[in-house]
Amino acid sequence: MVAENTKNNTILKSSYVVGGMTFVSRITGFVRDVIFANIFGASPSTDAFFVAFKIPNFFRRLFAEGAFIQSFVPVLSEYKTKYPEKLKEFLQYIFGNLMLVLFIITFLGIIFSDFIINIFAPGFSNDDGRFLLASDMLKITFPYLFFISLTAFCGGIFNTYDKFLLPSITPVILNISLISSALYLSNFFDEPIKALAYGVLIAGILQYIIQFPSLLNLKLLVLPKIGFAINGVNKVLKLMLPAILGTAVVQINLIIDSIVASLLAAGSISWLYYSDRLVEFPLGIFGIALATVILPTLSKQFSSNDLKNYKRTIHNALSLALVFSFPAMFGLIILSKNIIISLFQYGSFTVDDTLMSSLSLIAYSVGLPAFILMKVLLTGFFSRQDTKTPVKYAIYAIIFNIIMNLSVVIYYSNNPFAGAHALLALATSLSAWIQVILLYQNLKKNNIIKTSLFFNTLSFKTIISSILMSSLLFLIVSPVEDWNAFSFYVRGFLLIMYIGIGGIIYVSVMYILGFRYKKYSI
Fold first, then answer.
1. Are residues 244 and 70 in contact, defined by beta-carbon separation less than 8 angstroms?
2. Measured between alpha carbons, how far is 474 from 387 in angstroms, rounded to an integer?
3. Helices in 112-230 by DSSP H: which ranges?
4. Which pLDDT score, from 0 to 100, does residue 196 have?
């Protein structure tokens, strides 16, 4: 019992570390986006940069931080537990093969940048300069994929050894690099936005280099070897291929949104970007932090056949995901315009940009609980080295999103209307809910989850508390029209005050209803 409590405290401490460092990363990310909005606004040039940045980021999350990590960590945990004498050899071949594949992908990405932009942004043309600008910047940003994927490889090693600090703080380097590029480097370019592309590349190199000392301390800084005859390598590949689709549904849907948004009004890609960034804040702190910490733990519990604690960990993680995600969803919806105007409506960012961004923020917020729950539910499959089952559900979700997006485009082409981009965001949210329901039903069918996900006492308490919080916020928040006259500091103070009041109301009501955090400690 003492050992179990110690383990739970370690997991809880790790969750705080990942969540806290992710919070720092998201804050610097907000500063970055505020500077972007102030200097560049929501314009054709920002559309071009966000596409050029989103493409390597998409492949990173698809292959590296998504499918690769979900496949690599369980196998690495197995080697660490059962075959420690073969661990370094396994890492050498994984490292070498990963470098080879990344080099080929990066080289092809640079050579065929025009073709890739045509795929990911078919609505871009040379009339407004977006196509040529995006293609030029993609040649600069694509090598970021090489370095950040190797960084993710290092992060998988650290997470397996319960070293969560460095991987969770590394993204701050990207934000600092982009902030510096926007403020200082942009003055040296005829097209100032190109400075951001170089900022991405510089960040990727720095993010990888800072991993070396920690790898050296673990005595796991290995030289790469190329070969696919190692059993562990083949196992990772077999797990990874289906996991590519299973882990990246949200990212694939966001890319689909971006592709379709390029066919809508100029600025649509930027509006979706800014609203998505706000949803990423609670997703990173709660969803990604939970999934990052529990994946190696679940992998160890399953390898040790400790099914009792395995099921308990998943149950408690899902419970915490519900407790944190629903108030965040309600809060983002109620304060959508206030958040956008406080963070972004300065300089080149207009009142119309605020309105359009708030519409897509509301639409993405509807899916926030699903985005967070999905991160946790997927660990229930990947920790058992089951990457095939989520693929079926991912395909259903993607097909739904594509149909919804095409419907919007077809209607928009005949009847243009403001806010069409928000329907793309809503389609992404609904497709995430579809996948969550299917994942949950499968885990329940296999007796890994025993209780209902939504129809239970905890969910009832969470929803009631969230509704009460939202109702009181709706009554006390001052009209957003008045905020145009407020300075940056006044807006920021009011926003923090309202978020604080909302948090106090939610926590108080949950406590009155009998919720105790310790009961769900992981």
1. no
2. 43
3. 113-120, 130-141, 143-160, 165-169, 171-183, 194-209, 212-217
4. 94
Cα–chain center distance at 88: 30
Burial of 473 (0-12, 13-18, 19+ CB in 10 A): buried
What is the average per-residue pLDDT within 391-398? 85
Reported confidence tier of residue 63, pLDDT bands at 50, 70, 90: low
Chain centre to alpha carbon of residue 392: 21
DSSP states of 390-425 as a string?
HHHHHHHHHHHHHHHHHHHHHHHHHS--TTHHHHHH
- Whether the per-residue pLDDT at 438 is higher than 80: the answer is yes
Give pLDDT tens digits for 322-337: 888 999 999 999 999 9
Which residue in 221, 216, 210 sits closest to 88, CA to CA? 221
Cβ-contact 32, 178 below 8 angstroms:
yes
Q: How wide is the angle at C-alpha 438 spanned by C-alphas 435 and 441, nearest 5°?
A: 145
For the four alpha carbons of 6, 10, 15 and 20, in that order, the dihedral sign comes to positive
Q: Alpha-carbon distance 266 to 168, whole Å?
A: 34
Q: 280, 26 in Cβ contact below 8 A? A: yes
Helix or strand (DSSP H, E) at 184: none
Delimit the domains of the chain by residue range: 41-241
Per the CB < 8 A criterion, the answer to whether 361 and 340 are in contact is yes
Q: What is the pLDDT of residues 229-242, one digit of tens each?
A: 778 888 887 777 76
| Pairwise CA distance, residues 479 & 330, whole Å | 18
Q: Give the pLDDT confidence score for residue 4 in this predicted structure.
A: 47
Task: Examine the pLDDT at 381 and tell me if it is beyond 50.
Answer: yes
Cβ atoms of 223 and 386 within 8 Å: the answer is no
Got the DSSP string for 1-24? -HHHHHHHHHHHHHHHHHHHHHHH
Kindly indicate the confidence band of residue 3, based on its pLDDT and cuts at 50, 70 and 90.
very low
